[in-house]
Design goal:
10 strands, eight-stranded antiparallel barrel, single chain
């Protein structure tokens, strides 16, 4: 009987860890940002801006600045990615457990290519190593790290 209960719990826990994000899951390096209206190109390949996708959360941060970054909820379809409910990292890792703080001003998110508190991206390309997202203003180029 105990073996059956253990097997059932194991099967349940495996389902809890299952992600349906497909190729989007992982650690993405933001390498370039194109401004579509002006034709501008910003090379970020030597910068440390990353997007990490796991489960139902997307975390953006500059890895040179510890304990920073922003969390988003997200949803995706075959051709779109929508980020919403941004929160700043509340310092859990630093021991200042203030909790994650809701973002109400988009200005700090712009350095990550996010210009709206609910940002709608079109998936121009998604493979196991490359991701290209676009809005009506920007095109973001990522490489899987």
């Amino acid at each position: 009987m105990l073996a059956i209960v253990g097997a059932a719990l194991l099967a349940t826990s495996c389902e809890l860890e299952h992600s349906s994000n497909g190729k989007l899951d992982g650690f993405w390096h933001l390498e370039r940002v194109d401004t579509l209206q002006t034709g501008g190109v910003l090379d970020m390949s030597q910068e440390y801006y990353f997007w990490a996708v796991q489960g139902k959360l997307l975390h953006v941060r500059n890895t040179e600045d510890p304990y920073t970054g922003y969390f988003f909820r997200f949803r995706q379809t075959a051709d779109s990615l929508v980020l919403s409910q941004p929160h700043s990292n509340g310092g859990h890792q630093s021991g200042n457990d203030d909790g994650d703080i809701p973002i109400t001003d988009v200005k700090d998110l712009r350095r990550y290519g996010v210009n709206s508190l609910e940002e709608h991206f079109h998936k121009d390309q998604l493979s196991s190593s490359r991701l290209i997202l676009s809005t009506d203003k920007l095109r973001l180029y990522f490489k899987k790290f």
